[in-house]
Amino acid sequence: MKRDEDGEAETFDRFTRPVEVVIRTCREDDLEGLEWFGMFTPHREIIHEAFAMQRRGENLMLVAEANRFPVGQAWINLRARALLGTGLLWAVRVLPPFQGMGIGSRLLAAAEEALRARGFARAEIGVEKDNPDARRLYERVGYRVVREEYEEYEYTTPEGTHHRVPVDQWFLQKELSPRGADPGGPTSDGGEG
Questions:
Q1: Are 109 and 23 within 8 A, CB to CB?
Q2: pLDDT for res 181
Q3: Spans of the chain, pLDDT less than 50
């Protein structure tokens, strides 16, 4: 038994176990899990509308599943910029205890492959200006800032409270190499994400 650096907590054991992560499309039974123990419960309406869009073929929701739980996600709006040959990635996130393990990079690569398979020429993603870590991840995997944009989105919580959220963000874009070419996806070194 050891005490931590502050002498506060006792450590009784330390071990590592590999965890398989599978990236797949979202199923209806994932929706509650995507609220992440209350972190995104206020966004329940957004989550359910995104799933309805997926059912209509307008959106694709990818989840990174570990131990039958969605620990990461990347959603792709297939319609918003389709006339420009661009798929719009949104709601890209990884549950905090799983960040820094390469899951974010893998989700981005899977989203890009899904877009390639559907004939899209590029991927675009918005990142809030107060999230420099996400911007660094996107730039590291080949995205470049193409514009700044201010917008707002709205949602109603399960309790009925209406919210309007301002978003000041950069939009980053990446040209997608044709299927079969090396997309320059994530390395297996773990990386960020």
A1: no
A2: 58
A3: 183-193
